[in-house]
Amino acid sequence: MFSKKKEGHMEYERSEPVAPSSPDVRRRKTSVIGPTLKFKGELSANEDLIIEGEIEGTIAHQDKNLTVGKEGRVKANIDARTIEVYGIVEGDIHGEDIVKLAKSADVKGNIRCARIVMEDGARFCGKIDMSQKAKAAPKPASLLVAESSKQAESAG
Amino acid sequence: MTAPDPVTDDPPREADALHNAAGSRRPLPSIIGITVVMKGELIVGEDLVIEGTFDGTITGEGTDTVTVRRTARLRGNVSAAVVRVEDGTNLESTTLSGRIRLAT
């Protein structure tokens, strides 16, 4: 069903036929906590994470996107680059960049972020601190190569 | 035909997209990715794929399969109806219970 595509990081490719309209979903680097999964403890990750189950403890997410789905129930402090909440979160949320609370979100805790989107209907109880600046997005490798070659030219 | 309301749109879930695209009714597994590190107790009622690091107890409820990929680093107990372990997996101080299958 799955196959290893590249050395160093596992990617998936389904053997079943995939609809032509959705080619991007054939490969991904996203972890999924399914709706029947319950976890109590410490979780850290350096890839996108979708939570549809229950998590209690701490979530330390480095520089990636975290989504708490509609079925998701999180009782933990969350630290990530961008955080989208469609479910229930009890704990403090720290988004390096942006925090989005959807209509179905129910959040009890403080939010610290550079930008925030709160849809009509979202439930929120806590404080919002927006004093931090948005973290610059990482530059694409091509730009870094171009910059380094310019620096080399100017130095030479 | 009305335009989709952005406020009521469901959250994006790549797993669902994959699921729908493949036309399969079987739910896709939970995936503990290669960079994920978990320490604690985990209970799961669907298929689970582990390719990251897990320290603690995994309990599978029902007839589902826990797949341990060779990139995984496990420590603790794994109990499920079926535990599928890839050849070469690092199972340091790990106890497996259930129907154990070795995969190459």
Total strands of chain B: 7
Radius of gyration of chain B: 16 Å
Number of domains of chain A: 1
Biggest sheet descriptor of chain B: 7 strands, parallel
| Largest interface by Cβ-Cβ < 8 Å | A-B, 46 and 43 residues
- What ranges of chain B have pLDDT less than 50 throughout 5 or more consecutive residues? 1-13, 15-25
Number of helices of chain A: 1
Largest sheet of chain A: 13 strands, parallel
Order of helices and strands of chain B: HEEEEEEE
Distance from N terminus to C terminus of chain A (CA atoms, Å) equals 52 Å
Helices and strands of chain A, in N-to-C order? Answer: EEEEEEEEEEEEEH
Number of separate strands of chain A: 13
User: Termini distance of chain B?
Assistant: 51 Å
Q: What overall geometry of chain B do the principal axes of the alpha carbons give?
A: globular
The portion of residues forming beta strands of chain B comes to over 45%
DSSP helix count of chain B?
1
Provide the number of structural domains of chain B: 1
Instruction: State the share of residues found in helices of chain B, binned by percent.
Output: under 10%
Structural class of chain A: mainly beta
Question: Helices, strands, pairings?
Answer:
The complex is a heterodimer of chains A (156) and B (104).
Chain A: E1 30-33, E2 38-45, E3 48-51, E4 54-61, E5 65-68, E6 73-85, E7 88-90, E8 93-101, E9 106-108, E10 111-112, E11 115-118, E12 123-125, E13 128-129, H1 141-155
Parallel strand pairs in A: 1-3, 2-4, 3-5, 4-6, 5-6, 6-7, 6-8, 7-9, 8-10, 8-11, 9-12, 10-13
Chain B: H1 14-22, E1 30-32, E2 37-44, E3 48-50, E4 53-60, E5 65-68, E6 73-86, E7 90-103
Parallel strand pairs in B: 1-3, 2-4, 3-5, 4-6, 5-6, 6-7
What can you tell me about this protein's structure?
The complex is a heterodimer of chains A (156) and B (104). With 156 residues, chain A is mainly β. Chain A has one domain (32-155). Chain A is 10% helix and 43% strand. Chain A contains one helix and 13 strands, in the order E-E-E-E-E-E-E-E-E-E-E-E-E-H. Chain A has one helix at residues 141-155; strands at residues 30-33, 38-45, 48-51, 54-61, 65-68, 73-85, 88-90, 93-101, 106-108, 111-112, 115-118, 123-125, 128-129. Chain A is globular and about 55 Å long. With 104 residues, chain B is mainly β. In chain B, strands 1, 2, 3, 4, 5, 6 and 7 form a seven-stranded parallel β-sheet that branches. The termini of chain B are far apart. At the A-B interface, strand 1 and strand 2 of A face helix 1, strand 1 and strand 2 of B. Strand 2 (38-45) of chain A pairs antiparallel with strand 2 (37-44) of chain B, so a sheet runs across the interface.
